[in-house]
Amino acid sequence: MRPPRRPSLVRFERGDLLEKVPTSSLHLVVGNPPYVRSGDLVSLAPDIRLFEPEAALDGGPDGLAVFRRLMPEASRVLLRPGGSLIVEVGDGQAQTVAEMARAAGFCLTTVRRSHPEGAHRRSDSAGSRGRGPRRYGRRGRISFKGGA
Predict the structure, then answer these.
(1) What percent of the chain clears pLDDT 90, i.e. is strictly above it?
(2) Average of per-residue pLDDT across 116-133
(3) Residue range 91-124, pLDDT digits in tens
(4) Positive or negative CA dihedral for 92, 99, 140, 45?
């Protein structure tokens, strides 16, 4: 005998960022928005540049175009006590993204580096003096909570 069917706690939707999500309906949003500066795309390591769709990498001239849209939308769907937003950002972007989030009504709770200093470079035969193709920056993750 099969157990009774319970409603799913996860539902997948296709859309542009959070446009289809009802206001104050989520507890958690996790994302890895495109954050590579347009001018840096050509310097990405081949294993990234050749296999990832450009739309998944290109964050506009400063790498922050998607974050400018995401923060207000995330605030709309999450902004309540306990709602959390966790995003990956590129090297040097954490402070600016944190300011965007605060302006949207979030409280910064955590900034964490994903890779230790220097982990964004690898050596291979294509590089000179042991510096291979560039892996994009020292990434980090930022967590935000909705206001009290």
Answers:
(1) 34
(2) 36
(3) 889 889 988 988 888 886 678 877 555 444 333 3
(4) negative
